Fold these 3 entries.
Entry 1:
Amino acid sequence: MATSEAECLCLCLQLTGTVCNLLSLIFQGCFVFKPSAKKKKKTLSLGEITFVLQDELNRKILDSLLDFTRKCSSTRQHSDWASQMRASEIPTAALVLGVNVPDHDMTFQSLSELLQQSVTPHVASVQAKECGGEGLLALVLERLMDTVVTVDDEEEEETEQTSTQLHKSVHCSLSTLCDWYNAKTMKSKTGTPGKKRSSPVRDDPQQPPVVIIFKDLEAFNPKVLQDFILICSRYVERLPLMFIFGIATSPSTIQHMLPHSVSSLLCIELFQSLSCTQHLATVIDKLILTPQFPFKLNGKVMQVLMSIFLYHDFSVRNFIKGVQLALLEHFHSQPLSVLCCKKKEALLNVMQLSHHDLESIRHLLSFRRYVEKQEPQEQLNLFRDDTHLKEVCQKLIKDLRKYHKNYYPVLRCLHTLTSSLPRYPLGKQVRELHLICLEKNVWENEDYQTAMKLLKMLAKDELIASLQRCVEILQPVKSKKMKKALVELEELLAKFKQLDSKFLLCRLTWGLSLFSNNSYCWWNREWKSTTLLEMNESRRAKKLSPFEVLRNEALEFIDGLVKSHLSPPESQTLNEVCYYSSSATVRRHLNATPRTSIQAALSSPYYYLQNESLKTEDGTVSNAAPDICIAYKLHLECGRLINLYDWLEAYATVVSAAEGNNPDSDNVRKVEEVKHARFIQAVSELEFLGFIKSTKQKTDHVARLTWGGC
Amino acid sequence: MVVVVLGAPGTILRSVWYEEERLLRVAQQMPCREVQAGMLLSLMGQPQQYSYPSIFIYGHRASGKSHVMHVLLKELELPHATVSCVECVSVALLFEQVLLSFFGCDAASLLPRSPSLSDFVRIYRQQCSQSPAKQTRYIVMEKAELLRDTDANLLPALLRLQELVEDNVTIILLSEIVWDKFRPNTGCFEPLLLHFPDYSKGELQQILSQDRHPSYTAEFYSSYINILLGVFYSVCRDLRELRHLAALNFSKFCEPLAEGKVKETDTHKLWRNIEPHLKKAMQTVYLREVSSLQWEQMQQMEEKESGALRGLSAHTHVELPYYSKFLLIAAYLASYNPARTDKRFFLKHHGKIKKTNFLKKNEKTSNHLLGPKPFPLDRLLAIFYSVVDNRVAPTASIFSQISSLVTLQLLTQVSHDDQLDAPKYKCAVSMDFICAISRTVNFDIVKYLYDFL
């Protein structure tokens, strides 16, 4: 994670175990650090997981980029006729990363690290906002040479003090860079051999390329970029330069930005990264659709996070941050989240629950539902006896874990079966199916019925293939029920195969018998027509073929699995422990609505100030409200243009009414200076908030910038 | 009087001041530029004589300007400084490079920080009094057209630098555009003009044939160049590009030879083999749709596989978040529809408005021909809220999407940067692009465009 804030989050939110330690510490007020033996098991924090994931996802494209740089630097050394003849082109990698710009940082970070590790120590990455105008060259030199480059309009005292020789050596031009590069490579040639051995991957220590990464090509000023490329191309014989362009939109932007005379200096190769939706699918797969982490998101929160991703930013990083926020909120707001941890710890924590905590368990909705189903005696026990409740809780926690262990494999099985159906009744992605399942009983869903109908028409090889995949999904699962299901599924598959061989055998013997009859060749027409006839007859009789019987059996089996394991988590007792459900909080934090809040503050100040005197009925503002609220309220009644004097009059009336003066008395007629000043302040505050602006259309008027009102 | 004798074209260049042998070497290095080189030599005169203060050389790209100057100055060992004006982002760099190459780095270090022209002249005179010129010094300025963008006094001063520094120095300006475009309003010293014409087809053939492959005969390579020019001469006369193309495609040309199918002399068969290939090169690698590296790989691949490789402009698809798509659509509508027609498109009960009589005269021409018009932010949002199919809260991320569309260059901000004062934007995407985008969200944009009513 790039920001320190995120690091903090990662640090304090180690999901497994440690979270519970930390949080139970907070709740119990003691600070005992348990040096857990779980370390052996290699537990990963959320942050680490996501980082590893990012790395894996980018691995392929990064590898190909590395290959590209190596190849380019090696072809430079070749001295065959063709490469000599070729006009000196600068090798350029165009890296298309998609519009989710916030995610790019991490990719470039790991890219430059990898390059530095294995190809070249000379890597500089630049961003458009860092170099407005002519600073690009200076910035590149600075990054590469690790020195302060003197640009003429820059006032720096220290460079004056240093000797003139040094001052010259860092003058802002590429020839300086060339000299520096030559000095560097000469040094490494004569350098200690031990140092070279430390980086054995470097295939060519004498001439490592100089890589310049342009992180956001679109944002660069085209003129600056063109000049930079022109300058670089003059030095390409002396300096093995290489560019990497980070492109957010499409590669054709290169052609929009650079004219032919410039782009002919580049040898551009295209690299396309994974689309962000695929990226997200992997993250969800590894992070959410797994029983590994006890913390879960409920349907609404998932929906909010997904909609932010799909509708607003396409940023996987923001999605992960959203999950982290939910995690923080959950452990912060839900006291029972002490139980949201590894099984052993959870069971231990149950035993340590205080009476107060147990009371809150008794108030849980899901627990009350559970109690209602019990015998009256048991009900009494649950409400009175704390130790009994603890035991029951342990059992319930175990049940919840089992539920999760079964839920995800079955979800995946159902997905593999339905994801290839026409028109995707249950969604293309697992996450869609997951959302459906989180909401209500999936088997009551209409789409599920249609999916099942479609499945009943599936051809044999397709069905067998998807069942085979289900077997693969179920194989690594350790839970008892899943093992049982696996056995049954394998039996079904075996039957399918048997059917296959039986059918073949049947055919063969029949064919042979025909053949032995000697009347027909077994492939001739007559034979075909008879079989067709037979088939038709069987269809007419509505008699199911053995395959159809078996198919129905298999689907009933799947249906059974779904009904027993894919019930929504809300139906599970104690689900509140693991599931974070406050979607409104997440939405408020991640998808802020500044204008709505400002309007809310202005129209009902009580909401924020909590002053009793401000309390009013809907749609009105009390006289005692702050000046800006009164001015705002009054301006809502106006049209597009507001006469300032009328506004002032209205304001003065309201305010003097608040002070208890009779509006008709003489001294109020004249607007006091203080009120005048307060009014002007309120108006300029409104202008600053963007509700009005001055206009030249009419004297003494201001224009409204928002529409609507009362 | 300088006597310059020019032999028959393509033979030798003669001047009495330099040894024959050296001139021969010079002539060999610049084929087809003997006339211009001879002219230059005569302008330069004897090494110790004062030369004309400034010479302006112009000609198209890759017509040998820099090359001729470089070869002449280098082979004849004349003191010179070559400066590229692209590289000189500040005048300081220019002054420094000139002083560096004439007087060494001690002189260059005398320049103060952010030097003015008079600083340069002062130091030059100071240095030149210590080491006066024995031969004419030459300052060659490549891409001189960029000098027009620098301080107004620089170009006139450079043109009469000889007078200013009282030294035997000549400025040679190289440019792709004519002198008329340089002349400042205030007038200046007129340099001598020298034009480098484009190479003719025969000359190109002669020059290109020189860099033959070492393992093939000159005639063979020359016939290859002939074929190459036959295809490319009509679209490209740039020597550098042609040389590049020649290098890229030669291996393919030699292929049948290596397989032993054809003899070197069988030009017709070789032509039949290479011609479709060259035609394909014209559409791809010449336009830089495909990089030269990829082109080489393609040559090694089988024909059917190479079809999979797509050019740069084939990738135009951009994936955008849902609301960004609608924002872009709204921006497009706002850019290409007259603001007065918004009522007709986005109000439910707009009544009938006849197209002809409610239009101003200039609105009758197609808005797509006129290009996008700027629109204020609130119009964009108003259209956005009416085209997007569900209620959208005006969240911060909607606004941040607008600014990220600006950084992606799909929108451009036309007014100043002050966000408080109703910013204006323009939509910068093409019709095809927006149609593709709106198809993905099932929005029929053509129905909302005034031009297609």
Entry 2:
Amino acid sequence: MEAHPTFSIERSKQLNNMGISGALSSSLSVLPIPPEEMFPKLPESQLDFVEQELMTVPLTHSSYFNSSGVVGNIFSSSPGYSTDLQHSSLSPDEKNSTNAHFITQSPSNTAQFPLPYSSNTGPPTSATPSHYSKENSTSWHADSLPSFLDFPANGSIDNNRVESSACTIMPSEEYCKQNDWQEWAEQLISDDDALTSNWGDLLTDNIQDLEPKVSKPFSQFPGHQSQGHQQPPAALYGENCTGAAQSSPANSAPAKSRMRWTPELHEAFVEAVNQLGGSEKATPKGVLKLMKVEGLTIYHVKSHLQKYRTARYRPESSEGAMEKKTSSVEEMSSLDLKTGIEITEALRLQMEVQKRLHEQLEIQRNLQLRIEEQGRYLQMMFEKQCKPGTSSTIETPSGVSSNTTRDFLDKNEMEASQVDQGRSGPSQVNGSASMEEGSPLEKEGEKPDSPKTQHAIASNDSAQAPKRQRTE
Amino acid sequence: MKFGKRLKQQIQESLPEWRDKYLSYKELKKLVRLLSSTPPTLLNGSSLEQFAKNEAEFMCLLNTQIDKFNAFFVEKEEDFIIRHMEVQQRIKRVIDLWGPNGSHPSEADYKEEMAKIRKAIVDFHGEMVLLVNYSNINYTGLAKILKKYDKRTGGLLRLPFIQKVLEQPFFTTDLISKLVRECESIIDAVFPAEEEAERAKEAKEAITVAGEGIFRNTVAALLTMQEMRKGSSTQSPFSLPPLNFPDSDFIQSIHLNAAVPIV
């Protein structure tokens, strides 16, 4: 049997603490690339400027952001592992000590990536995003650890969704802020202290905020922002980032900052419009004033009002906006039908197919999320193995730990195979060799299920099979 | 080129205004091919420069893709939010006006309006689902391209980049899915109850009606999804298991009976 990086569930919490530095270092090695990618459009000159700026930033400073950024990334992506890593336990002092650890690593890591400007541009972009991913994920994790371990399909899905949507704001913010790097860099230098103190506030406040999460993913930024912003049930790209580090990059480029509307926000909008006498009478300025949403600009309201007017006008005057989009052939043939019943049936059919597609998409998405999670998990394991200081992890009995992995993968496949069950038989017209693989596997699924069989059903993944074999 | 072909098919089947919003898979693939396979640490001088240039171009394109997805997705999402509320209000208005308990009960008007609403709402549902599909297929394409990149250059781009992608607005389709489900419950309320036997009889005729547009796109999407997951030469722990769902015969038959053959 190969030496396999293994953990028991009981140990995982302990190991997480040790694992921080390992994970941090590994993540740092990859961190330079991702943030850089978010700003490809920066002309070279601007990059140089930023580079210079950052060179002057004291090393601990940037590494602070690195660590927070990295930790933030981990948090936002590895649900079960970091519950113990409550930020309160990671005081700034600790952060700095771990920083020293991966500062030394970073030069060697950047050598791998022939993008001279990438590593330097990492820190500022990760700073703000991490702020929020951390913020959200803290409150999320306490909730999610039990569900992660049980791994009920729905529970973890919801958590994943919340988490992913809650963390959405940050990267999107990056896209908008391309022109404001210089301001960012300057403000980073000056705002470090403010940020440090804010961590504590934000985190302790957020931990309370677990409940209404799933239904309102974007409203999870509580009203405890450092500037004491009133937080409406809204999700604005610009808003939260301005709350934390910079004062006003969003306002400096209003036309560009993209806004993500939510039903709640829209309701508030409609309220305001109605108060002003309807969609025709209401003006963007008036609506903006009435809505009293921080960070909402008149441009957002204007474009939204335009869409709103279009949507209202067309259903009343014609068959409805969406109907225009579908081909007219469909409408003509439906007019030719004798009775309304047939139309209704056609619609039912369409509905069924649409439902089916949606179902499949959701399943697929969850699988994809889990696969990536698993990949991250493996990555972490490998990193830990490579690190000299964590030899104790290797000594855990392989049987126990592989069960964890197996359970994890089991759940993956169980969900996929749930869809497989109930199939009457192979149906693909496009017969190919791979199809034949599908049928025998699928038939196995109808036998009484044991975990092993379930593995066999759902995947042709040969790489997963060896994992089983190792543990047997 | 299997995915590329599938993607192309999907794009062809999709609604016109969506067609240029999908992933530029082919271009990205070309750029990956241009990248040298010698590890960057071993390159020097002009070849290193060249590599850096190519890589930068690749990254740039990758990021513009993501921007494109985000912009489109968020805009459509906004539209859907507005439409969702509108549909509900429209139904309410019709019921209040022409419904049995309304202010001007009129069965004819009521029925006619309801029929229109039914069509509108089913199409609305369909469009939302197609947006989710859009998100998914672009994600899949990105994952594939990143895999190719890593394979070609020996780099470690895939894992961290995908983590970032998972957080992007265009991938977080929860709100849309929620709207879809709400739509489904509205539809259940709005559709009259039918006898099972009658339904089976009508279903056959219904097939000929549902030809173009959203429905066609949906069918194509489902089949594409199935095809893509049938099993590839490069199965790995990161691959999705094969997709099998009941009634895929039926869906295949719809597909084949469509007015315009789907090549």
Entry 3:
Amino acid sequence: MVQLRPRASRVPPSAMVDEGQPASEEEEEAEHGLLLGQPSSGAAAEPLEEDDEEGDDEFDDEAPEELTFASAQAEAREEERRVRESVRRDKTLLKEKRKRREELFIEQKKRKLLPDNILEKLTTAEQTNIKKSSGKLKEANLQKENEDCDKGSDSKKAKVQKVQSVGQNKSYLALRLKDQDLRDSRQQAAKAFVQNSLYGPGTNRTTVNKFLSLENKRLPVKKAAAQFLNNAWGTQKKQNAKRFKRRWMVRKMKTSKK
Amino acid sequence: MGEFKVHRVRFFNYVPSGIRCVAYNNQSNRLAVSRTDGTVEIYNLSANYFQEKFFPGHESRATEALCWAKGQRLFSGGLNGEIIEYDLQALNIKYAMDAFGGPIWSMAVSPCGSQLLVGCEDGSVKLFQITPDKIQFERNFDRQKRSAVHKMLVDRQYMGVSKRKCIIWGVAFLSDGTVISVDSAGKVQFWDSATGTLVKNHLIANADVQSIAVSDQEDSFVVGTAEGTVFHFQLVSVTSNSSEKQWVRTKPFQHHTHDVRAVAHSPTALISGGTDTHLVIRPLMEKVEVKNYDAALRKITFPHRRLISCSKKRHLLLFQFAHHLELWRLGSTVATGKNGDTLPLSKDADHLLHLKTKGPENIICSCISPCGSWIAYSTTSRFFLYRLNYEHDNISLQRVSKMPAFLRSALQILFSEDSTKLFVASNQGSLHIIRLLEGSFKHLHTFQPQSGTVESMCLLAISPDGNWLAASGTSAGVHVYNIKHLKLHCTVPAYNFPVTALAIAPNTNNLVIAHSDQQVFEYSIPDKQYTEWSRTIQKQGFHYLWLQRDTPITHISFHPKRPMHILLHDAYMFCIIDKSLPLPNDKTLLYNPLPPTNESDVIRRRTAHAFKISKIYKPLLFMDLLDERTLVAVERPLDDIIAQLPPPIKKKKFGT
């Protein structure tokens, strides 16, 4: 059996255990047992490496310090706690900020809203409307929707409902903005559908210029296209050329003056 | 006649919007046409196809369906989910009711005319009951139940079907259970509704077939394709005396260049309209009884109202577009030349002002004062008045704020000759007179309509001396008001065709009225009767070629130094009527160009007649006399309009 010196340096201790002498295995095992018994967490890996480097310097004569591991672990734990604490503090700070902003918005909204008396008028007018139109289905639909709105909205003041008429005043109409957005988006989608099916990909469309020039091409004396020149072609190039020419002229003037 | 320098203007970039829906009303022989910008126009087909009413457009209104209900009520449904009823008397929107189903794709009226069906985006078909005031929601059908209930209803719906994304653009339901569908693959398909199977398939085009309309008798229908072709299908018996009939494609018509998005079938004619903005009415020869000029094709391209106003003193032109106004100053020249020469401009025409309107509504009417210092225009909800200041070559604009609310929704605006008064005809039938002061205004007077009628005043004319104001409505005669005493002076007897142009001559104060059947009357306001010349020409009658003109006369003006001359124009000609010359009878040549100078005087005197017509400038949108020796003619070549339309379908022609 070859007696191999326990090789220190880069090789991790677990490897050393494998390559080490079988005779001193148990001792080493006992020594490294402590090391091996550690959970293979990152925190534990660090001090092992530190150990290695120390071992490098002192080469084979000094045993790795066992105490450093525990303290290192404690240190690592401390760090972790610190990081967690800071994150928690950030979160709470953000929360505070958001709360303050929300309150500010509510304040502003309260200021912006219609005064209470008009809102009351609106809701009472709606009630009378609902009472009057109990027979008609359409109004019943409206009523249902209004009731849903009532239940759904957070506060009476936050959203104003759609009403047909406000008592005597027909000068304004209260609208719910969400409905309008929904309606707009549906209208946009419908328009886009029609546009796509008529002019989108897959349709066999040509330009108006080509369409008008078709006749010119079939005449006995062939004429040019309806719009022969495309003035929009190469605008960037033309602009650059113009600018260059201007600068060149200025330079020429300067040198010729000298 | 005299020599004139003519300002030939082609910088009015007028592009009408495409036609989206067409609906024909049998009882009154009227056609409702809705355009892509939301405007709805009503054409009176028996009054020589004259556009007698219109509802201005709105940006959010994308009408997809239009239909007439019992009692001359017009409804439209659009992509904003609302059903709109139009008030044909007061020329405004009666109400807009939300159908709560998302965008509305189709609409139909039941045969009795009292129920309205609306097909919505969410797949439901809603039934509304038409009550005298409003419409009332009755029922809601799901997709499955729909077919069981309704026959003889024409439903146009978009349904995405199967793999290659074939869109069905139109569906028609006949009373014998046949369903006809037209789709984007160019097919017209006949289905049997009882068994749900395809009976016949006609492939008629390479592009989409976009619209279908069935006649009332259900023996013919018409379809329009995206290539601009309109096909006529008829139910024809298989052999000459068999009772079995089948649908046969009989006639193709190619009158459009772009997609035909709307067709209608009247008892005697096929009506089509599309993206190329023409409205084409093709009378069917077998249905027309009297084969005269009435049976000819009618193509309505140019507006029947004036969109241009002119300030004679400063040589300014105001162009009215849907959402903005443009002010141009005419160029000038110092050169002289002979008849027919083109004179070079020493100063080009100048684009002075581009005035955009706020809001989504279209501009209804606009006007510039003769001195050029005031511009006024009106939309449905607001009225705008601006004061212009000219310093050297610069122009500054100042808005007059706080216009009174009763001025909005004006149908016609007119300034007096001395620019001190503003006349506004509102759609409620009242006429307002406003005095204009430096930077502000004062409401002088309002002429209320006669009790019981809400007659919207469509045309106004003011006499150059400022004493008389003539206003025409749609059915009553022309009212003449005395401005000095602020009361009604007289009423010209009503004529059964609508008025297309009005003007009052200087000095003589003769009111010249042009009607849609090409009749021209001259009425003397101080004498309260028709003039001698007018009676003579009514007795003799106009030349038959004059009466066969397609387009209405839109503007009448006068020469300041020659009281015997009347200058009028329509889209394809302008004419100077010389009242001192003899009238032509049916045998004389109406359009006689200037005879060569070496002809003897006798011949020239024999062929000369009162109507001097020139067709040099066409298509004319506006023509006026700026001063004694200058005319301005605003032309709009058709090619320029076509060049700005959306792309058409590609057509492959051999050799290109």
